[in-house]
Amino acid sequence: MTISVIIIIILAIVALVGTIFAANDKDTNYNKKTKGNVTRLTLIYAVVLVISLIAVGVYIVAG
Questions:
Q1: Fewer CB in 10 Å around end: N or C, the chain?
Q2: pTM value?
Q3: Total Cβ atoms within 10 A of residue 1
Q4: What average pLDDT does the segment 25-50 reach?
Q5: Confidence grade of residue 51 (pLDDT, cut at 50, 70, 90)
Q6: Within its chain, how far is the Cα of 5 from the centroid?
Q7: Longest Cα separation, the chain
Q8: In b/e form, how buried is each residue of 5-27, taking b as 16+ CB within 10 angstroms?
Q9: What is residue 27's predicted lDDT score, i.e. its pLDDT?
Q10: Is residue 36 packed enough to be buried (19+ CB in 10 Å), middle (13-18) or exposed (0-12)?
Q11: Helix H segments across 1-63?
């Protein structure tokens, strides 16, 4: 069970870092266009991570 939680957290962090690196392109127009998207994606990742941790906690307590 602990390994599953660790893998989920690692995958979420890798996805977040990948999204941020994708937004760090050298093209200034690209950065202007994607700034809002990156902000929204970061918020989505944070919310999903919190919900996932809560769900795992409920699963552990209920199980």
A1: C
A2: 0.51
A3: 9
A4: 79
A5: very high
A6: 14
A7: 51
A8: eeebeeebeeebeebeeebeeee
A9: 64
A10: exposed
A11: 2-23, 28-62
